[in-house]
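As noted in the main text, all predictions were made from sequence alone. Below is one such record, for VWA domain-containing protein.
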Amino acid sequence: MTGQAWLGDVARAAVALDASSAADWRHIAACLGLGAPRPTGPRPEPRATPETHPRRRRPLGRGERRPRPAGHPAPAPGQRAPGRTIALTPWNTARRRPPDGPSTLCRPRPPPPTAPRSPTTPSSPPDHRRRPARRPGPQHLRRRARRGSGRRPGLRLRPLTELPRRPVFTLRYGVQILADVSASMEPLARDVTDVVARVRALAGVAGTRTLYFSESPLRGAGEGPRAQWRPYRVPPAGTTVLILSSLGLTGPVFNPHRAAPGEWLATVRAIRAHGCRPVALVPAPERHWPRWLRATLPAVVWDRGTTVGRVLGTVR
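Prediction:
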């Protein structure tokens, strides 16, 4: 390579320009930077690069002055030397003139929602005219009681011995499960086991007790086989009793051991007498429920469409 162009570039340019003489070739080479005479003078010195970190000025001593740079004239007598000046924009403290049109800032305050009372009206006497309140004593209470009894004849004042309370469904006192293992519940044996496991997971193993019976709990119930069943005992007050039974609504038609409605009525009364709350899961359509079941025991249809919200709504 000679200069900054190849010789091939000269040849291409000569062919493109149809160069026919040596003068044309020299002219093309000169245009491409080839064939120029080399400079015979001294090589110029490179420019000095500015310092990246300028040198720090030496602090002036007492009575010394820094020399004035070239090109800056000396200030006239009485004139201050130029330096770094911070120009501040003047701030006008005058208020803006409100616009001629209606403005929300100039609207009057709306009147109060209630009419102002005068301090001299009888309904609101001044504070210095109010009498100190008396502390009600026994005589004052008797006088007030006589007034009340005088306004309403036959009214007797009685002390409040018990506060009214509303029962709330809770599993804090545990759950007792009464699972029916009679012939009418044989098709649902696996479902009964699944429900018992879910209740134990919800209320805890220590707070759940499962008793098995056949047709009616009054005939005997227990946690083990039938040989170990004993007469049914109602749990402590506050316990929720979950009954898993058909209540005699399903099963063989000619079943001589089917539970009578009176047995279930006696069972529900005994449970409620001890302060417990019974609820039943019945594997029968609601249209087949007898009248005594609807009026005595809160029950839920045991089906695939049964939800937790429906069960809680029935219990509450």
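The two ends are 101 Å apart (CA to CA). The chain has seven helices and five strands. These features were considered when defining construct boundaries for the mutagenesis experiments described in Section 2.9.
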